[in-house]
Amino acid sequence: MSEFTVGEADFLLDGRPVRLLSGALHYFRVHEEHWRHRLAMLRAMGLNCVETYVPWNLHRPVPGGHRDVHALGRFLDAVREAGLWAIVRPGPYICAEWDNGGLPPWITGEPGTRVRTRDERYLSSVKHWFHRLMPEIVPRQIDRGGPVVLVQVENEYGSYGSDTGYLRQLADLLRAEGIAVPLCTSDGPEDHMLSGGSLPGVLATVNFGSHAREAFAALRRHRPEGPLMCMEFWCGWFDHWAGEHVVRDPEEAAGVLREILECGASVNLYMAHGGTSFGGWAGANRGGGAPHEGPLEPDVTSYDYDAPVDEYGRATEKFWRFREVLAGHHDGPLPELPPPPASLGRPAEVTLDGWASLDDVLRALGGEETVAPLPPAFEDLRVTRGLVRYEVDVPGPRQPYPLTLRGLRDLAVVYVDGERAGVLTEEEPRLKEPVAGPARVVAWVESLGRVNYGPRFGEAKGITGGILHERQYLHGVRARGLDLDAFSDGVARVPFGALPEEGAAGLYRGTAVVRGAGDARLELPGLTRGFVWINGFALGRYWSVGPQRSLYVPGPVLREGANDVWVLELQETGPDRPAPRLLPV
């Protein structure tokens, strides 16, 4: 058993100074059978610690039960076996380019609830969650023989609010639940962020990607004493759909890492290994001129982050440059790299042999239909990730008028009397051709990822402002949700038929015969936008707009011989669609 404490200038392990050389690795973005390999890669890079967030919404997507909270405990056990320390950031808000910043939409969508404040209903839910979560952390603290040395209170709160009383209640709650190791906060190195997001008596850390000396000088203005730490050194960045793939020069990033260490600081590489936002859990940002108030910018499925260990677990040039810097802060040679996981033995084509329309899929897997004067939001229908089918009648006879999905979030494929009439977005929510009555309008609305950062965090999804025909609201809206979680164990109920003559939207069923199962990537040429499952494992969203062109398939998902593949195409396929294929990484 050991004691980890915060001294006047250093972290102390049993009274002797230590430096945390940490790397972010999210257990929920890495297949469990790859945890040990990725942790060994961090050790080989020269790190002695790993940091992870905990996504509340993943473990409790809907009220009434929890899902595999023990995964965190299993990960921390793997961390201990790897000979690393651990920093745990349980939120409840985590950002992390994760849907809704980790908060369940049934929390943020509850009318009258003010999240990330001292609102009683919100804090009551947080208390319930922490009471369930902390047994995975408390017995794995360093003073009980485990790896956990730090636990963070909230996350970058100074970028959002100034209710330090809320932070104090969270810190007190963590202590009451048994957290004995030092607590910390993390914020940007700006005065308003540090004053709004830090707490007296709690270690303050800063997040940045460059200008380390200036950042630590800002921290010292607020905290003259205590260890210096960069809790997030942004050594790469994430990608948005329809954007450019972001990279950072390895030598330049290594220079900033060297500067951080020359300041005598501890560091956490964000990310050391990014992994993948499996299952459609990728979040979104708001761009534009006003800070985080502009157009939606959804994040891609890959969370490679241009990290030193790439999405496939391979060492990059940045890995070797960082290893050179970190080696100077170790006694003796660094560990050798672990053997890589097996790669797919040879390419495998996916043979598609069945199809079901979206309506058939909805009837088999969807929730209950509701009828309301105005369209219900995803949150009202308890849809965490997926889509909602809205249907409304245009009375008639009447003249052709513009039809608008007011407050659309995020994307809708619209049909009028069974014929596709257009694809609408938040920026372009009106059909190009006017609609005459009588008519039946159906809109399949998809969430592209909930905002995870900024003042519009927690906004609802769906048609949030009503369906307008000219200036008149159309009432009596019928709505039914289709959540992605329903596919993992319910596809057997879907009535598949023959493939359509044209590439229609719907659920495609296929098979891939694998020889030499191992890590692979899935290419989907000719498809437009949707989701993929292999043997029930949800790989995530694909989208032809790029920049991501294939989906990572962890080797443990595949099996020798026949593998089941389901492709949910939400728009259309190309007329001469090549077969999807699995390729070695």
From TrEMBL:
GO terms for biological process: carbohydrate metabolic process. InterPro entries: B-gal_1-like, BetaGal1-like_ABD1, BetaGal_gal-bd, Galactose-bd-like_sf, GH, Gly_Hdrlase_35_cat, Glyco_hydro_35_CS, Glycoside_Hdrlase_35. The active site is at 156 (proton donor), 232 (nucleophile). Keywords: Glycosidase, Hydrolase. Residues 507-563 form the Beta-galactosidase galactose-binding domain. Residues 375-476 form the Beta-galactosidase 1-like first all-beta domain. The keyword Disulfide bond does not apply. This is Beta-galactosidase. It comes from Streptomyces alanosinicus. The lineage of its organism: Bacteria, Bacillati, Actinomycetota, Actinomycetes, Kitasatosporales.
